[in-house]
Design goal:
Keywords: Exonuclease, Hydrolase, Nuclease. The protein has 15 helices and 9 strands. The protein has 446 residues and is an alpha/beta fold. The protein folds into 3 domains: 255 residues, 3-Layer(aba) Sandwich (Rossmann fold), CATH 3.40.50; 82 residues, no CATH class; 96 residues, no CATH class. It has a 7-stranded mixed β-sheet with strand order 1-7-6-5-2-3-4, with helices on both faces. The protein is flat and about 90 Å long.
Length: 446
């Protein structure tokens, strides 16, 4: 999950970060880490919209093993191969996961009901329930057992797997997969014989992997992710099965992102009353990213990537940091006083957002008012008494009411044979819209 639309935004703002993986141009990596849940979901239910899709548990296991072997063959790690499956999630994320699982079951029932109403033939076999991909289920226990056999078999039969340190962190180990991977990296960094030039590659689909990777402060770190297009083919039994037609892998180089951020916040270097430290700036950058969205705490309202929230956060940070006596996020500890000053300055942008939202609400209100006017008695009874009664429905000043009445009279709206109702409706709609926008302008000038 993580930050919505963050990967696309950062790839567009910093275009050199991402490169398409080609067989003859793959960089060398020492350590490869797999966030396994993306693989498990992709191999077990690749197309939730296909009601007739069925797959056996044995086929799911085979697809998972093939995909692991495929990724290993692309990167060819030299020292460490780490596979992590989500265990019990932190308490802060449990409510979100519970809601997501209930919604998944509800959507599956609704899709099945719609398919039956349309007369679509439903296979007799039960579909795979994606909620089985949960720590503690029988499915996950069987998968973990099969993964152990698979790893042992590869170590015995494949020379590329020999000589590596291979880890499998299963569903019975608490914590999300990406967090267990980061814990492992931090534990490796604490070793006396750790090589600071170790090259890391992390595979996963979550956007927050960018945050986790860069806050490791490793100089050589890349993310591997793919774009998958699925097509359906029939097997011997005539059943539909999903197969990969084309896979385009991308490497996102976090080492380049560090350089981009260094240039992004370089103007601060001459303005700060304390020493400039890129690593501390990166920690603050991660904090700003989590204000837009994350899996554990609510994000700020009206702060969205598609509304240029990140550039606003950057501008606020460049303005506020020289006024502070240190960084906001100090080695993972949030300085609340400095953070409060940052938020107060960032909140100045909320006024503009609220005014724009009020303008939108005013426009929608005018449309609702005009619709109510069309349904009023005046539209069916072209008499002045009905007009005056209906005019009281709207929150207009006396001057505005008089102007509307004059315009209606000039159009002959009170004549029994008048056909000016459509034009009169446009008049009242225009008057009400002008009135509500005037209120918005008055608010914006205060």
């Amino acid at each position: 999950m993580g930050v919505p639309k963050f990967y696309r935004w950062i790839s567009e703002r910093y275009p050199c970060l991402s490169e398409v993986v080609q067989d003859e141009q793959i960089p060398e990596f020492d350590n490869l880490y797999l966030d396994m849940n993306g693989i498990i979901h992709g191999c077990s239910h690749p197309d939730d919209e296909d009601i007739s899709f069925r797959i056996s548990e044995e086929q799911i296991f085979r697809d998972i093993f093939n995909y692991i072997d495929f990724l290993f063959g692309i990167i060819k790690p030299k020292k460490v191969f780490f596979m992590a499956i989500d265990g019990v999630a932190p308490r802060a994320k449990m409510n979100q996961q519970r809601a997501r699982r209930f919604m998944s079951a509800k959507n599956a029932r609704e899709a099945l009901s719609k398919a039956r109403k349309k007369g679509i033939k439903i296979p007799d076999e039960k579909p795979f329930d994606s909620n089985c991909i949960t720590p503690g289920t029988e499915f996950m226990a069987r998968l973990h057992e099969q993964l152990q056999y698979f790893v042992q078999m590869k170590i015995t039969t494949d020379s590329c797997w020999q000589g590596l340190r291979i880890y499998l962190s299963g569903h019975n180990c608490p914590g999300e997969g990406e967090h267990k991977i980061m814990d492992f990296i931090r534990s490796e960094r604490s070793r006396s014989d750790y090589d600071a030039n170790t090259r890391h590659c992390l595979y996963g689909l979550d956007a927050d992997l960018i945050m986790l990777g860069i806050c490791s402060h490793e100089p050589h770190f890349a993310l591997l992710r793919e774009e998958v297009k699925f097509g359906r083919q029939k097997n011997r039994n005539g059943k539909h099965r999903t197969s990969v037609d084309e896979i385009t892998f991308h490497l996102l180089h976090l080492s380049l992102l560090r350089e981009y951020l260094s240039w992004e916040f370089y103007p601060l270097k001459e303005k700060l009353p304390f020493d400039y430290d890129l690593e501390s700036v990166i920690d603050d950058w991660v904090l700003m990213g989590f204000l837009i969205g994350n899996d554990f705490i609510p994000h700020l309202p009206h702060v969205h990537i598609h509304e240029d929230a990140l550039p606003l956060l950057y501008a606020t940070y460049n303005e506020v940091l020289p006024q502070l006596d240190g960084y906001i996020n100090e080695a993972g500890i949030l300085n609340l006083k400095r953070f409060e000053i940052f938020l107060k300055n960032f909140a100045k942008n909320d006024r503009k957002n609220f005014i724009e939202q009020m303008d939108d609400e005013a426009y929608l209100s005018s449309k609702r008012t005009s619709n109510a006017w069309r349904k009023s008695a005046f539209t069916s009874n072209n008499d002045e008494q009905s007009f005056n009664e209906d005019l009281e429905m709207f929150d207009l000043s006396n001057d505005e009411k008089n102007k509307v009445t004059e315009e209606y009279s000039s159009k002959g709206a009170f004549d029994s044979d008048s056909n000016a109702s459509d034009e009169c409706e446009e008049i009242i709609e225009r008057r009400i819209l002008t009135s509500t926008r005037a209120v918005s302008r008055k608010f914006s000038n205060t």
